[in-house]
Amino acid sequence: MSSRQPAQQIDQQQLVHLSRVLTRHHVLRAREWDHRSPLLQGRMRLHELQPGLFLRLADVRDLYDLTSESELNPGLKIAVLLRGRAEVAFGHRRLQLHGGGSPSAVMVALDRAAPFRRWGHRCGYERSLTMTLSPSWLQDRLGLARASQALHNRHLDRAFWQPSPFILSALEQLFDGLEAQPTPAWRLQLEGLALALLGEALASIGSPLASRHLAPVTRPSRLQRLWQLVASGEVDALTQRQLAERLGMSVSQLQRRFHDEVGESLGSYLRRRRLESARHALMHEGISVEEAAARAGYTSAANFATAFKRAFGMTPSHCAKQRGGSARPGHSE
User: Fold this and answer.
1) Residues 15 and 112 in one domain
2) Of 102, 163, 203, 245, most Cβ neighbours within 10 A?
3) The domain that contains 43 carries what CATH number?
């Protein structure tokens, strides 16, 4: 969050209020939370730009290990994570979105109400935009009887893409003025940007709604396909060589292009991502240190413990004990 903006506190009532038109049966759970203290710090806004077209802007930091559960209303969802990390599930389909060098975006089709879950982590940060298109808006504006007709005619269909630099720059500028009182001109700009984002998304994912005149400006690049693998979670099960083969590149080409775009080596990025996954599992799933090491790609628990402490400033066992008990007995570092 920008240091220029005052830090606001968002409590349970405010959080549920901001979600009321998009979700039902909202349940919030957080360890050590007294049900009165604020849950988030930052800024969150919800705008209905047209009847049935909603845009939610969030620039927040979690104050607890917060799990949010609700039931999403039917419609088409578009989520863009500009900074930080988000871990969510639509129905039974779990996914992670990452911001930073190449922010990821996803479109999800809900033909009927579906469970939704978000896992927040204490001190975790998220700057995101979520667009919701209601069934009535989809019918009136796009002639769709079901949200899934925008994808492949299946409930909970999803598609990933990488937004263009133009869209990303415009979205970042939105957050710069998030504190100001919305003016009619600002709302018109926001509406135009929302529609541009929708058009780009439909073209980039190859939606049936995209005519030949709305084809993607450029064919998805190999690095764009890499970020699709990252967003879907498939990258966690692949070596760099397997990744390169999937993308039709040599390992050295992939490493060079990744570093040029992101400013971090591919190996470092993958190690950090897998360590974060292992840390989450230790804190929330109660797995052993050896299991966490395997999840992070380490065959040696000792080497894993060394890398873990270097990354997070604590040992894996201390992490597990600090966040809800201890690692399963009988396992050491």
Assistant:
1) yes
2) 163
3) 2.60.120.10
Residue 289, classed as helix, strand or coil, is helix
pLDDT tens, residue by residue, 226-278? 766 765 667 778 889 999 998 888 999 888 887 776 666 888 878 877 887 78
CA distance 219 to 187: 32
- How much is the average pLDDT of 61-67? 91
Has this prediction a pTM greater than 0.85?
no
25: left (phi over 0), alpha (psi -120 to 50) or beta: left
Give burial (CB, 10 Å; 0-12/13-18/19+) of 206.
middle
Residues 72 and 23 sit within 8 Å (Cβ to Cβ): yes
60 DSSP 8-state letter: E
Residue 78 belongs to some domain of the structure: yes
DSSP state of 216: -
Residue 328 DSSP label: P
**Considering the domain boundaries, does residue 333 fall inside one?**
no
What confidence tens digit (pLDDT) does each residue in 136-171 have?
A: 999 988 889 999 999 888 899 999 888 888 888 888
Residue closest to 203 by CA, chosen among 169, 239, 164 = 164
Ramachandran region, residue 123 (left: φ > 0; alpha: ψ -120 to 50; beta: rest): left
* CA separation for the pair 65, 309 (Å, rounded): 20
Domain boundary among 199, 221, 243: 221
Point out the domain boundary residue: 161, 187, 221. Answer: 221
Q: Are 70 and 18 in contact (CB under 8 A)?
A: no
Domain that holds residue 203: 9-221
Here the tokens at position 47 are 């705008």
Indicate if 207 and 251 belong to the same structural domain: no
Query: What is the domain count for the chain?
Result: 2
